[in-house]
Design goal:
Blueprint: H1 5-10, H2 12-15, H3 21-30, E1 32-36, H4 42-52, E2 56-60, H5 85-96, E3 101-105, H6 114-118, E4 123-126, H7 131-144, E5 148-154, E6 157-163, H8 172-175, H9 188-191, H10 197-214, E7 223-228, E8 233-238, H11 260-263, E9 272-273, H12 275-283, E10 289-293, H13 297-302, E11 309-310, H14 316-319, E12 328-332, H15 337-347, E13 354-357, H16 360-367
Helix pairs in contact: 4-5, 4-10
């Protein structure tokens, strides 16, 4: 089917590129691309793919728009706070380009639905923000023979690649066979992210997806592109497929999809207490506990639990001697990751009476005192 007059005008800057032209634009129109996630990475990916004229654009995301998203997730605006991200995304993309068919899935990617959701698409773009979804996306793509355009971001750094064992390259598990232990890798909510960073990495992902659809250029297959925003520097690492990879290797041990999100939902450990437990301890007559906030000073100024003493995890190695090894301490951070690390550090140095507050100050705001700001 030839391009209509409206398409000829809309995509005119593509059409005058010898590498694209009318034939290439029709390839883009015929492409079916799925974006896993409608957040920081998914926003620029979806926006640029829709603007480029991808014929069928899929988005899967179960989350709702939060005010904290708007610093980087440009698919959504202030009036969208509280709405499903897929609904906000669909409206934004249809305003941008009504020629594109936007298909949305308001559900969480899982071992039960991943193969079914991903199977109809030609290209998958990984816009996930957690390891459970990232490994599900990778494994499903390997099993279905779909190219997986990978991207990830953290603080001021990002990376991108193309994982496609069926094209001769590695998969994500060739680099990282298993997810890190629960709590060892802080999320962007815990560590922060520069707002423009997902725009840079997501745009690279969109570029890779379009090149795949066109069948032109040199892809990131067998290469990992690293970007440091503070240094404004790109560098590259060569990758190769791991013959012993558990999912794409010759003797693959992973034959079915794994729900790491379910496996990681462990009951509260003996080292943890809930915010309700902390509240009861603080209100208990004669209680002799101290609350230590291991976040950074800027976070402490944003929100705090009354009576908490600030001692950042980053300074703990130099200042832990200020604490009494015989005192009962309740450690908290933003979401419960850094406080567990602080607990382990102090325990190795002889502190016996330690508890980490599960969920951190976010849980305190949700369950105890809504007046405490969430950030």
């Amino acid at each position: 089917m030839e391009l209509n007059d409206n398409e000829l005008r809309r995509y005119s800057r593509h059409l005058i590129l010898p590498e694209v032209g009318a034939v290439g634009q029709m390839k883009i129109r015929a492409a079916r691309i799925l974006c896993v996630g409608a957040g920081g990475l998914g926003s620029p990916v979806a926006l640029y793919l829709a603007a480029a004229g991808v014929g069928r654009l899929g988005i899967i995301d179960f989350d709702r728009v939060d005010l904290t998203n708007l610093q980087r997730q440009l698919l959504h605006g202030t009036p969208d706070v509280g709405r499903l991200k897929v609904d906000s995304a669909r409206e934004t993309l249809q305003r941008l380009n009504p020629e594109v068919e936007v298909v949305t899935f308001s559900e969480k990617l899982s071992s039960q639905n991943a193969l079914q959701v991903i199977k109809p698409w030609d290209i998958v773009v990984d816009g996930t923000d957690n390891f459970a979804a990232r490994y599900l996306t990778n494994d499903a793509c390997v099993m279905l023979g779909k190219p997986n355009v990978y991207g990830s971001i953290f603080r001021f750094e990002g990376q991108a690649s193309l994982f496609a064992p069926h094209l001769g390259g590695p998969c994500y598990r060739c680099l990282f066979p298993e997810p890190p232990p629960l709590g060892m890798a802080p999320s962007c909510a815990e560590a922060g992210v520069l707002g423009v960073l997902p725009g840079i990495i997501g745009t690279i992902q969109a570029t890779e997806a379009l090149k795949l659809a066109l069948g032109c250029g040199e892809s990131l297959l067998n290469r990992l592109l690293l970007f440091n925003a503070l240094e404004m520097r790109f560098r590259e690492i060569k990758l190769r497929r791991d013959p012993g990879c558990p999912v794409c290797g010759k003797n693959a041990s992973i034959k079915e999809l794994i729900d790491y999100s379910i496996e990681c939902q462990n009951p509260m450990s003996a080292d943890e207490v809930s915010v309700q437990d902390l509240k009861r301890a603080l209100e208990s007559p004669g209680a002799n506990i101290k609350v230590i906030d291991v976040r950074e000073p800027d976070e402490f100024r944003l929100a705090r639990i009354p009576g908490a003493q600030l001692l950042p995890l980053s300074a703990l190695a130099d200042r832990y001697s200020e604490l009494d090894p015989e005192q009962q301490y309740y450690l908290h951070c933003k979401a419960g990751v850094r406080s567990l690390k602080a607990l382990q550090f102090l325990r190795e140095r002889g502190f016996k009476h330690l508890k980490s507050v599960k969920g951190g100050i976010l849980a305190w705001s949700d369950e105890i005192d809504p007046s405490v700001p969430k950030y």
